[in-house]
Amino acid sequence: MSPTRVVHVVVAGELGGAERMLTDLASRAEESGAVHAVALITPEARLSALMRDAGVRVHDRGPRDGDGPFAFLRTSLGAGDVRWVASVLAAERAHVAHLHTFGSHVVGTRAALRTGVRVLRTEHSTRAFEDATCWPFSRWSLARAHASVAVSEHVRRVAAARAPWMLPKSCVVANGVDIDRFAPAAAPVGGPFRFALVGRLEPRKGVDLAIEALARVPGAHLDVVGDGAARAGLARLAQERGVARRVTLHGHLEDTRAVVGRADAALCASRSEGLGIALLEAMSMGRPVVGFRVGGVPEIVEDGRTGWLATAGDVEALAARMREAVQVRDRLPEYGRAARRAVVERFSVRAMCAGYASEYARLVATASAPA
Prior knowledge:
By secondary structure, the protein is of the alpha/beta class. It has helices at residues 17-26, 29-32, 45-53, 69-77, 80-91, 105-115, 127-130, 135-142, 153-162, 207-214, 231-240, 257-262, 277-284, 297-300, 315-327, 332-346, 349-368, and strands at 4-11, 34-41, 57-60, 96-99, 118-123, 147-150, 170-172, 194-198, 221-225, 247-251, 265-268, 289-293, 307-311. It has a seven-stranded parallel sheet, sandwiched between helices. It has a six-stranded parallel sheet with strand order 10-9-8-11-12-13, sandwiched between helices. Strand 9, helix 11 (231-240) and strand 10 (247-251) form a beta-alpha-beta unit. The longest helix is centred in the C-terminal third of the chain and has 20 residues, at 349-368. The two termini are 21 Å apart. The model has no long low-confidence stretch (mean pLDDT 94).
């Protein structure tokens, strides 16, 4: 029997958790039970390089003018990009079109309908279900999808409330991390207590809330890895709160391990979070997490065992949990070992690939089953 052939359709303007997860999945043919290729439409050259460096076969649409609303409408409703994605599906003789980003929902579904390919969506966040400007487009795609995978029970619950008809066709496959690449790192010795926050500098990631909380934790330092439009404003906020010398904005880093390895704990101040790949990476390295009890975070962080959780959006509560972590610094390796075990047991790339292998096999089987 020939292997299942999957084409991942990605329309993205950034290099984030969803794109890293896809790269891990698509570079592991044997573990995922499929041969993979990517149809990529993006203005971000680093995204194509990331995938190719991992050995993924990439069909790149070429340089784009941007990723704003006009670019989205042109790609989703126009003919050119749909025709191009359909040609990739045909050239790869795809069985499954795997859609990952909101920008891929309409163009990927239209191309799959043209070529008779099964449609699988991964719901990486709740944005497509909660944003009124996104939902009409996403709903159209979802109504034509053959299966939907949510990265957490939280995302699945939100999706089911908005699209109950998809519940029988949905399941949860948690994102996984490479536990060998993100190996345990020795705990830092001496110096100020350091928190590491990895994520895009945008309101959803709550870096401003992290800075506000840090101002209530004397002596602690915050390392922020990531870039985005909010960077200048965050630098001003740190200055205004008197913590500019205790906040380091590293910008985008291809490899976050050095910064996370120097930290005592990972920090999550997100206003919404589908699951949290950066948190899983830090936990895999033996770092406990201090964060808000938001989205899928409580599914990966066990309060009092692998980290500390605070009421969502409550800066005072977050600062209090950060101070708790500082006070038990000598016990952090114990929390870190528990965090590492949780990732190895439940959130490895191997476990993620096995989940998708089952979904791919089911989709192909149902496509060939008699009516």
